């Protein structure tokens, strides 16, 4: 297995590829199936797909910009850690237990691209 590689996108999103996938790479218009876990900067978990009964499926262009940009760099079967500056997450809005202007971290496993 190749060592983890990290890339910083123009928006400031940092994608740390933990496991390189070998499948297709999604486009922004694709619907993806993922396992994920989201944490605040202090490590507090605010959401996880496991809390909702398993993998989540959603259109990649209907989520926060960090996800739209970061997941497009992944391939099916891959796992990555997305570090999302507040501007690419929820910005100045408080969402659930997430305070305004929060930098967020997501661990994402790209299971499939739903056709």
Present the secondary structure layout.
Layout: E1 5-8, E2 14-19, E3 31-40, E4 45-48, E5 56-59, H1 65-71, E6 79-84, E7 104-114
Antiparallel strand pairs: 1-2, 2-6, 3-4, 3-5, 3-7, 6-7
Structural features, described:
With 115 residues, the chain is mostly beta strands. The protein has a single domain, classed as Roll (Chitinase A, domain 3), CATH 3.10.50. The protein is 6% helix and 39% strand. It has one helix spanning 65-71, and strands spanning 5-8, 14-19, 31-40, 45-48, 56-59, 79-84, 104-114. Strands 1, 2, 3, 4, 5, 6 and 7 form a seven-stranded antiparallel β-sheet that branches. A hairpin with a 5-residue loop joins strand 1 (5-8) and strand 2. It comes from Paraburkholderia phenoliruptrix. One of its GO terms (molecular function) is peptidyl-prolyl cis-trans isomerase activity.
Per DSSP, the total helix count is 1
As for the number of domains, it is 1
> What is the CATH C level class, in words?
Alpha Beta
Name the overall outline: globular
What fraction strand? 35-45%
Task: Indicate the percent of residues in helices.
Answer: under 10%
| Rg estimate, integer Å | 13 Å
Structural class: mainly beta
Major β-sheet annotation: 7 strands, antiparallel
In angstroms, what separates the terminal alpha carbons? Answer: 28 Å
Oligomer: single chain
Query: What is the CATH fold-level name?
Result: Chitinase A, domain 3
